[in-house]
Amino acid sequence: MLRAGSLDEYKILKQIFKNNVDKLTEKVKAFVEEEINAHYSDVDVNDFKEDIKKYDQLIANGGTVFISDLNSEGSEGSFIDLFSFMEKHPKLKDLKLIFYLASIQSNELDKAINEKFYEDHKKNKEMGRGYNYAVVEGAGPIGLYTTFKLFIEGINVTLLNDRSEEYTREQFILLDRKWIYQLNLILGTQFDQLFNEENSMAKLLPNHVGIVIMKNFETALMNRLKYIYAKKLAELAINGKAFDKEYIDGLPLNTYFGSDFLGIPFDLLFCAGGANDRIRDNFLEEPQVLTESKNYSSIYIDKADPEMLITEGDYTYLSKSMIEMGIHLEIQGFYEFIVYSNISHYLKSRYGNIINLIIYGVMEDGYGYLMPQNNNFTHETLDLHVFELKQRISIATNTPKALVNFIEEIKAEMNENPHWEEYYLNFIKELENKWAIALFKYLASLYRHDADKLIVETEENEGCDEEDDENLYFKILSSNTFWIKIKGVENPAKRYHTENDSAIVAAVGDANTSAHFFTGSGLSRLGVEKAILKIKEFNRSSNEQLNLKDMIEVALKEVRNRVLEKTKVHLNILPGIYIC
């Protein structure tokens, strides 16, 4: 919420800044030209353009610090949230000039922003009301972002990560423009390295939306945190138990785990470990399922030739009839693969007509036999979401019901024959690869590529074909089908008491705050923003009756409702689950 007079203040600040920048820039340019004309008439003015450019960048650095001031003073009610409003409001439109000036990156800018972060940390620390130490559990994007925001708020933060060093996430994620604006400030020069370099595995789309590979995003955030907060992260770069002794003075909740447990003291514990967060489950509750489940396919393919484009843009959405997939499924040998496999005769006969079941839908008659659900004039539909960068293509789509059911029945048969588990797992993997290749070649055919000249390798057949100039080569990095359902914690915050102390535990991770990935909303940092905003509000208030736990809980429940609103277009909300 903006306080009265905020917009007028912003307009005044904008005009002062813009006028000063314009005057200084014009004076420098005029001075250079006059000096050259007076004393160096044979010198080309263009020779000094680079120096003038550097000067302009130095002036712009001040604008970036100004932007950080605006951003840090209001979180979700900040300058960033005004951006879309400014585009439509004629009197505020020029405010965007400050933002564009602030997006210029340099090493000097990094230094200035870091100093501002430290100043904010120290200033906010002095304003704190007893919540001085926090533990953030989960070192994914949400956990890293939470760590950064808590540090700025003046809180000493310990970041816990239980993943092994080999753990990586290759999937593309979509970042909405608020994420992008925040990252431009947080990452500094690393923002350009992540999004703008020639071979970067990320891309800025129109309207300031970004796509990036999860592990690259996590690495950039972690590196930036190490730079800003080097001492703590160096001592607490943990995978399990490697804590520095300086910080192991006992945990307020250590009796929960037993007297032998070594812990880290905290006033706040933010659980950001995702859908399968065991610490959240132990301290708060297991999340309840809020929506029905749907199955989706996710495919990541690397290109041998980065100059080769399959689609016509960075992001493509297509809704297509399944009928044209038939030829590609046949070429991948779906029928033969099932017939000559070692799965049961029952499943072979039940899914012997799988291509038609995929195309026309599947239903079961009264005798347990499967048959196409629709006639020749009605087909199943594919909703394709395609991201394409120079080196990689990502395809996400709904999985046909027949393929979903087949895989589930194979898994059930595997559970009845545990000694054949490896065979069944390999069968499922090869089946998903065949589906992925058929889908990729179908996509390519929509853009008039010759599918026969697209050679797609998997781990199993890599290097089998000798490369030549006539064909185009690709490799499946991963292909899988998976279930999506939205889960949420009904009570996302709780206060624990010991004899002399207490601590607040709150869930800000994926299960509580992330919308369905087809909504285009990207990773939800809204839970983090709302929780930090309540900490800020609490610290700046003299009202002794305020209860921070209750404030955070109400805010996170509002976030859950917002997630369900976005999700219900794609997934039906279960009976008994209400959006307040």
Please provide a written account of the structure.
- With 580 residues, this protein is an alpha+beta fold.
- 45% of the residues lie in helices and 17% in strands.
- It has 21 helices and 18 strands.
- The protein has helices at residues 6-39, 49-72, 79-88, 95-102, 107-126, 141-152, 177-187, 189-195, 214-228, 230-235, 254-257, 278-283, 326-331, 334-339, 345-350, 354-360, 401-416, 421-446, 510-513, 526-539, 548-567, and strands at 133-137, 156-160, 172-175, 202-205, 209-213, 268-271, 288-289, 294-303, 315-321, 362-364, 370-372, 381-388, 392-398, 454-457, 472-484, 487-488, 493-497, 502-507.
- The chain has a 6-stranded mixed sheet with strand order 9-12-13-8-15-14. Strands 2-1-6-18-17 form a 5-stranded mixed sheet. A 3-stranded antiparallel sheet has the order 3-5-4.
- Helix 2 (49-72) runs parallel beside helix 5 (107-126) and helix 20 packs antiparallel against helix 21 (548-567).
- The radius of gyration is 28 Å and the shape is globular.
What is this entry, summarized?
45% of the residues lie in helices and 17% in strands. It contains 21 helices and 18 strands.
Rg of Cα set = 28 Å
Oligomer: single chain
Span from first to last CA? 21 Å
Major β-sheet strand ordering:
9-12-13-8-15-14
Q: Residue-averaged pLDDT, rounded?
A: 75
Structural category is alpha+beta
Fraction of residues in β-strands: 15-25%
Number of helices: 21
* Major sheet characteristics: 6 strands, mixed
Quantity of strands, as a count: 18
Question: Rough shape?
Answer: globular
Keywords: Coiled coil
Coiled coil: 7-34
